[in-house]
Amino acid sequence: xxxxxxxxxxxxxxxxxxxxxxxxxxPGRAALALVPTMGxxxxxxxxxxxxxxxxxxxxxxxVFVNPLQFGxxxxxxxxPRTFDTDLEVCAEEGAGIVFAPSAEEMYLPDRQVGVSAGxxxxxxxxxxRPGHFDGMLTVVLKLFNLVRPxxxxxxxKDAQQLALIRRMVLxxxxxxxxxxxxxxxxxxxxxxxxxxxxxxxxxxTMALALSRALFAGAEQGRPSEIRRAARAxxxxxxxxxxxxxxxxxxxxxxxxxxxxAGEAVLAVAARVGTTxxxxxxVLTLG
Length: 286
Ligand code: PAF
Fold this sequence. Notes:
Elements: E1 4-6, H1 9-19, E2 30-37, H2 43-55, E3 56-63, H3 83-92, E4 97-99, H4 103-106, H5 125-128, H6 132-147, E5 151-155, H7 159-171, E6 177-181, H8 201-218, H9 223-235, E7 240-248, E8 262-272, E9 275-285
Parallel strand pairs: 1-4, 2-3, 2-5, 3-4, 5-6
Antiparallel strand pairs: 7-8, 8-9
InterPro entries: Pantoate_ligase, Pantoate_ligase_C, Rossmann-like_a/b/a_fold
GO molecular function: pantoate-beta-alanine ligase activity
Subunit structure: Homodimer.
């Protein structure tokens, strides 16, 4: 079946009706899974849509470059917008609905209320991008309310985003299952990102230091050794302007101590040329 494109609330409600969502789902089986995106879809997004299809009878993909989660001086204006190709990707991967609202459809001009990401929204990535996580959670909550999925799928590459969405679901009692999908990488280790297209060939080569650093850290055992090994790789690449390298608890994003046992996220953010990139790996310590 062709993908149904909805640009507003009425179109979305009509798409749900056309697909019979909310009527025919057998008990225990999810009727609708949502994959929220900002478009510029790549192989990583394809893997999210495929995972969503395994989890539910129907898949909706939202395509919306959310102005609320970009700070002044960030790349909102130049963020890649490739809607025609995105539609093809969604159709090829079997999504039933593409929800692509305008900013006017999403936000009233005198908008007052939004979601606060709390203290966790102000550390690590949130310290470098003030307000980013408030804007991200606000749009994700609105997408949940508009699309009304049973399941939503997010990439683990945005690990702090995923942790905050899980926290929002818990704190606000949202009836949605959150699924985290593994990061997809190029053969040479570069994590797929819509922002990779900003990189020149030379910058792309320098950007490989991020994943190299994470893999070097992952070979070590203790937190201090993990941080030291990863840092050494980044220090050896002068083209990489490091923002942060942290080893944190995946649920709280606070730094883990030397005796920590359990899952930890080794996360990095750096600027290569004018492009800001993030990446992470999940490790089991202790
Ligand atoms: O990860 C993204 O692409 C965005 O942060 C999201 C979740 C679609 C919200 O705008």
